[in-house]
Amino acid sequence: MNSHGIVVGEYDNMCTPDCGGSPQAWMYQQSTGALIELTFDPSETGAIANGVSDGGIIAGEEVKAGQLAGYWTVTGGAVLLTGQWQGYDWAGAANDSGTIIGEFGADGTPGNGALMWAAPGYQEVSLPPLPCDSCMRGDVAANGINDSGAIVGHSVYAIGMDSPISMLAVEWQSGAAIILGSLQESGTSDAYGIDTGGDIVGASRVGTATGAPTHAFLIHGGTMIDLGTLPGDTNSSAVAINDAGQIVGTSDDGNTERAFLYEDGQMHDLNALIDASSPLVGQITLQAAAGISSNGWIAVNGIDSRDTGQNADTTRAFLLIPAP
User: Fold this and answer.
1) Report field, pTM of the whole predicted structure over 0.85
2) Domains along the chain?
3) Burial per residue of 146-167, b for 16 or more beta-carbon CB atoms within 10 angstroms, e otherwise
């Protein structure tokens, strides 16, 4: 979501396999209450919206004999992005300069790779992976970008043919990939969001033991900080950070997920922060935060206990607006 109260996402028609259901992209405008379907062309089988910038660029993809990266504008218009991987790629986020990031996925070699398209020409550029001498195929992804053009994600990594392969959080600056490390040198981490000041959030395994849990992290001033979990949980992941330093994500005990807000050094269960006067109190469970705007509005996915029958446990999108 962005700071203008615009939220984007997808709707899945989870019906029987032969009912013709397909993902549909949407944009919600809080100012008008309008939920608007986003499409690229009438012949597509579906579309997905993955992120929206304050500048009004919506990154996403068309589903049509594959995946085709593209973007919409909040004011109207849709453009498919071209390049070497057209048909096997998707766009995930954009910044206010109009730079869009995404990913391609191909069977066999080279595997998955990170992509960037910069305005105004939107020529496709592949972001370099970390060195991996023993990798049979790549696994690289770009997940977040700030307005300075710094990009975060992950890349496989191994130096030497006999070295174990790691999956490490990475930051790209001016086209160069920088290792961000992992908690307790576990060798497994991923970065999902970055704010204007360069603070980065993501998730990392805690320790190298088999079955070691995953914890949300914050990188501030070059130091990776373990954010822990909500009480009683074992795993967590941070997906977004705003310029006020507020962080959102998900915490779980292996079975049940809860969305969280981390601020002032403390992790809060978002379910416990809902205004007591809201008619949704006791009816919904907020499971996974998806984004937070600069003014503290939070987009989050969850379930409504009033959904029953075949609609039970249907995932719904919610918008949380801070009380005055």
Assistant:
1) yes
2) 1-127 (2.120.10.30)
3) bbebbbbbbbbbbeeeeeeebb
Output the CA–CA distances (angstroms, integers) from residue 81 to 8, 72, 92, 119, 214, in the order listed: 19, 11, 12, 11, 35
**DSSP conformational letter for 136:** S
Contact 155, 111 (CB under 8 A): no
Which residues, at least 6 apart from 175, have a Cβ–Cβ distance to it below 8 Å? 125, 127, 128
User: Residue 87 burial (CB < 10 Å; 0-12/13-18/19+)?
Assistant: middle
Pairing of strands 111-117, 138-145: parallel
DSSP code per residue over 296-320: S-EEEEEEETT--GGGTT--EEEEE
The residue type found at 66 is G
55 burial (CB, 10 Å; 0-12 / 13-18 / 19+) is middle
The 3-state DSSP class for residue 186 equals coil
Cα(219)–Cα(6) distance, integer angstroms: 27
Burial of 15 (0-12, 13-18, 19+ CB in 10 A): exposed
pLDDT tens, residue by residue, 205-264: 999 888 899 999 999 999 999 999 999 999 999 999 999 999 999 999 999 999 999 999
Of 139, 179, 131, whose CA–CA distance to 159 is shortest? 131
